[in-house]
């Protein structure tokens, strides 16, 4: 099945979840659980925490499916946003020990999952974003990727990449502006 | 922003917050602050949604990992027993009030809330106005709005529009008028997920003033057996004159 068909099937399932359809929730779960668990695990770096958050994510999906608007958001983006927000909130809650990875990993973040792009996400949109990220200075793009995928704060990024906080903010903000311009072209 | 080493010029203050929120670089406090603005700030909510669409595709770069086999049954178990699990009962009411997860679970998207607010205001606008119409935004402990109430002509008709999904809680929701210095008086049961129009008894209509507040509590089916709130208050707000 191609990405478009997967997307519309998922959107249709979410609409049924909004109507209280448990079978549809199972479909959404089967189609997305590995990706969303990967998202949680990447941010939390702790299997047990990631499992707790994943459970919370699908309970949230069940309750908030009515707020999903297929005209405004793609289903996987909407689901991933819930997973990322929950995982980041857990990470920031202070309940977990902070993990600090070496600077090399932050820079190499793009290469950590070669070939892992699945059909759901193998989209033109991702290709465009990847192209636009490629036009940024490498360290700036690495900081943006690490922030998004690992849930790192400005403070942590500046420590990891050994630049002052103001510099890190400036990198990321300029990078975001360039990305937006590039994506709108 | 709290740090003093921030080098951006003052005019940039807050400009990047939606993108930074989506990117995930903000602290817990900064995230909370932005999330509390979301329900009331349509342009902000749209910017956040736009950045979600721009950056969200990056999750393509996350390696999928199969969750444990029993995860789906854990999720369904949580759905089946949301309010009656031992864990939920163990939470003291005060803790529940302050539980971010509890309230975030129950708050709707900002666009929906904005639409509901407009619906309530439109309702007020079409009412004859022999006296000043009133409204109340009923928020939870963290200030997030859960309901919008509008009181129209003569103060004897009230429309309450839920902005929150509470459908997982099997208990009934009861609306209370709390006049200044008085006990709560029931205004009737309201339904999750849909606007409800209530007729205010004449003896209470006169007490709908800016000194009074509205509150919603969770009650047994059919409403409070005692005539006073018996369950947790999930939202409250002062009446304001329009």
Give a structural overview.
The complex is a heterodimer of chains A (185) and B (242). Chain A has nine helices and no strands. By secondary structure, chain A is mostly helical. In chain A, helix 1 packs across helix 2 (22-44), helix 7 crosses helix 9 (165-184) and helix 8 packs across helix 9 (165-184). Chain A is globular. The two termini of chain A are 29 Å apart. In chain B, 33% of the residues lie in helices and 21% in strands. Chain B contains nine helices and nine strands. In chain B, the strands form two sheets. Chain B has a five-stranded antiparallel sheet with strand order 6-3-2-1-9, with helices on one face. In chain B, strands 5-4-7-8 form a four-stranded antiparallel sheet, with no helix packed on it. In chain B, strand 4 and strand 5 (185-190) form a beta hairpin. At the A-B interface, helix 2, helix 3, helix 4, helix 6 and helix 7 of A face helix 1, helix 3, helix 4 and helix 7 of B.
């Amino acid at each position: 099945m191609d990405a478009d068909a997967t997307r519309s099937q998922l959107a249709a399932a979410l609409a049924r979840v909004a109507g209280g359809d448990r079978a549809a929730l199972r479909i959404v779960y089967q189609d997305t659980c590995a990706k969303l668990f990967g998202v949680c695990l990447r941010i939390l770096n702790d299997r047990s925490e990631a499992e707790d958050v994943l459970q919370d994510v699908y309970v949230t999906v069940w309750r908030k499916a009515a707020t999903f608007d297929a005209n405004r958001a793609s289903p996987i983006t909407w689901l991933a946003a819930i997973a990322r927000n929950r995982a980041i909130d857990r990470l920031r809650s202070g309940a977990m020990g902070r993990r600090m990875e070496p600077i090399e990993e932050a820079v190499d973040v793009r290469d950590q999952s070669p070939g892992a792009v699945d059909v759901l996400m193998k989209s033109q949109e991702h290709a465009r974003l990847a192209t636009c990220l490629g036009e940024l200075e490498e360290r700036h793009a690495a900081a943006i990727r690490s922030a998004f995928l690992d849930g790192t704060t400005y403070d942590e990024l500046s420590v990891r990449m050994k630049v002052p906080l103001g510099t890190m903010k400036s990198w990321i903000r300029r990078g975001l502006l360039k990305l937006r311009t590039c994506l709108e072209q | 922003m709290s740090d003093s080493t921030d080098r951006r010029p003052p005019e940039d203050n807050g400009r990047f917050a939606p993108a930074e929120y989506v990117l995930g670089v903000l602290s817990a406090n900064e995230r909370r602050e932005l999330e509390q603005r979301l329900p009331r700030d349509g342009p902000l909510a749209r910017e956040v949604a736009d950045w979600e669409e721009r950056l969200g595709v990056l999750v393509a770069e996350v390696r999928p990992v199969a969750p444990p086999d029993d995860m789906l049954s854990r999720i369904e178990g949580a759905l089946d027993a949301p309010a009656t699990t031992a864990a939920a009962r163990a939470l003291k009411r005060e803790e529940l009030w302050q539980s971010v997860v509890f309230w975030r679970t129950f708050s709707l998207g900002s666009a929906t809330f904005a639409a509901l607010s407009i619906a309530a205001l439109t309702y007020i606008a079409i009412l004859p106005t022999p006296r000043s119409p009133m409204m109340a935004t009923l928020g939870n402990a963290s200030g997030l709005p859960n309901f919008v109430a509008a009181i129209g002509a003569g103060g004897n008709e009230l429309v309450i529009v839920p902005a929150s999904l509470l459908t997982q809680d099997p208990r009934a929701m009861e609306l209370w008028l709390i006049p200044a210095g008085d006990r709560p008086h029931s205004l009737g049961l309201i339904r999750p997920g849909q606007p409800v129009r209530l007729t205010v008894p004449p003896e209470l209509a006169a007490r709908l003033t800016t000194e009074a507040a509205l509150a919603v509590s969770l009650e047994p089916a059919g409403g409070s057996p005692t005539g006073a709130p018996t369950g947790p208050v999930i939202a409250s707000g002062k009446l304001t004159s329009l």
